[in-house]
Amino acid sequence: MTASFRYLLRLGDLSLILGQRLGEWVGHSPALEEDLGLANIALDLIGQARLLFSYAGEVEGRGRDEDGVAFLREHGDYLNAILVEQPNGDFGQTIVRQVLVDVFQLELYERMAASTDARLAAIAQKSVKEVRYHLRFSSGWLIRLGDGTEESHRRVQGALDRLWPYTVELFAADELDEAMAESGVAPRLPEVQAAWSARIDALLAEATLVRPAARPHIWHGKRGEHSEHLGYILTEMQHLQRTYPGARW
Questions:
Q1: Where are the alpha helices (DSSP H) in 61-88?
Q2: What is the pTM of this model?
Q3: Packed helices 32-60 and 91-112: angle between N→C axes, nearest 10 degrees
Q4: Residue 106 pLDDT more than 90?
Q5: Could you tell me if 183 and 116 are in contact, meaning their C-beta atoms sit under 8 angstroms apart?
Q6: 216 neighbors 155 (Cβ within 8 angstroms)
Q7: How far is CA 101 from CA 45, 47, 93, 138, 170, in A?
Q8: Cα 98 from Cα 104, distance rounded (Å)
Q9: Per-chain mean pLDDT for the chain
C-alpha cells in the first residue's frame, strides 16, 4: 500500500464516517431546518469522500472504484480518526464534534489547496468552500447552546469534555504525515494545529465554554486501530454491498 494511497484513505475515511454518523440524524433532528442542515452537511462529506476514493482507486491500481474502496474494506483498513466514529449523543454533542472536525478540515484544506499534487489541490479547493458552510452551521449552534440556558450550557460543556481528548489524534503526526508534508502534498500538522487551536479558542470564548485540559493520546484510528463503534457503523453501511456484491440501482 503506497503512502499516497494511505493518505487519501485517511482523508476520505474521515469524511465518509462522519457523513455516515450525521446521516443517522435524518428524521430525528430537533427541527426540520436542522434536519435538512445536517443532511446537507452529510451529503457534502460523502461527496468529498467520493472524490478522494476515486483518486485513491486510481493510485492503488487494482481496478477498484469509489464504491469498492468505500464499502469493501475490513474494519482495520479504515484510517479515520477515532473522533468521527464517536456516537452522536444528543444534539449538543453532535454539534461539538462537528465544530472540532469542521475547524480541522477548514485549516487543513485551506493549506492543501496549494498542494504539489494538483488533483488533491483541486479536491481541497472544492471542499474548503463546503467546509466554510459546515462551520457556519455548527459554530452558530455551539454559540447558541453554550451561551444559552443553564441546561444547554451544561450539556455542551460536558460533550466538549468528553470529546476533547480525541482531538489529539488529529495532530499526532506519524511517518505518513511527515512524508506528505515533506513532499509538499499536505501541510505540516503543527501548523494546522496552531491555527485550529486559535480558532477553537475564539469560538469557545464566544460560547462561554471552557477549553478542557490536554490529555495523553491513546487512540490510533489513523493507523487502523478503532473503537467498537466503527464496527456497528460498517455493519450498517456495508450491508447492501456485502449482501448483493456489485449491486446497481
A1: 66-71
A2: 0.95
A3: 40
A4: yes
A5: yes
A6: no
A7: 11, 16, 13, 10, 9
A8: 10
A9: 95
- Residue 189 CA neighbour count, 13 Å, CB half: 14
| Cβ-Cβ contacts under 8 Å for 14 (sequence gap 6 or more) | 80, 81, 84, 101, 105
**pLDDT tier for residue 216 given thresholds of 50, 70 and 90:** confident
C-alpha distances (whole Å) from 56 to each of 51, 85, 132, 145, 159 are: 9, 21, 25, 39, 34
Q: For residue 48, give its domain range.
A: 3-243
If one counts the domains in the chain, the total is: 1
pLDDT level of residue 126 (50, 70, 90 thresholds): very high
- Cα separation, 235 vs 75, in Å, equals 10
**Which of 43-52, 139-148, 158-167, 214-223 bottoms out in mean pLDDT, i.e. has the lowest?**
214-223
Domain for residue 216, yes or no? Answer: yes
State the amino acid at position 61 in one-letter form: G
Residue 249 within any structural domain of the chain: no
Indicate the length of the chain as a whole number.
Answer: 249
Looking up cell 469557545 gives 204
User: For the domain that residue 45 is a member of, what is the CATH number?
Assistant: 1.20.1260.10
pLDDT at 249 over 70: no
If we measure between CA atoms, which residue out of 207, 212, 230 comes closest to residue 220? 230
Nine-digit cell string for 198: 486559535
Is residue 165 in some structural domain?
A: yes
